[in-house]
Amino acid sequence: MQQPQWTPSAERIAASRMDAFRRFANQRYGLQLADYPALHAWSVAQREAFWQAIVDFFEIRFHSPAQCVLREGPAMPDAQWFPGATLNFAEHLLRRRDGHPALVAIAEDGSREQLSYAQLAAHVAGLQRALRNAGVGIGDRVAAFMPNTWQTVVGMLASASLGATWSSCSPDFGTQGVIDRFGQIEPKVLIAAAGYRYAGKRIDLTDKLNEILPQLPSLERLVIVPYSRDEASPTDYKSVALTTLWQDFYQPGGAPQFTPVPFDQPLYILYSSGTTGVPKCIVHGTGGTLLQHVKELGLHTDLGADDTLFYYTTCGWMMWNWLVSGLALGATLVLYDGSPFHPEPTRLIDLIDAEDISIFGTSAKFIAALEKADVKPRESHKLPSLKAILSTGSPLAHESFEYIYREVKRDLCLSSISGGTDIVSCFALGNPTLPVWPGELQCKGLGMDVQVWDEQGQPLQGGKGELVCTRHFPSMPVGFWNDAGGEKFRAAYFDTFPGVWAHGDYAEETEHGGLVIHGRSDAVLNPGGVRIGTAEIYRQVEKVPQVLESVAIGQDWQGDVRVVLFVRLREGVTLDDALRDEICRIIRANTTPRHVPARIVQVADIPRTISGKIVELAVRNVVHGRPVKNTDALANPQALELYRDLAQLQS
Ligand SMILES: CC(=O)CC(=O)O
Question: How much is the pTM?
Answer without folding.
Answer: 0.96
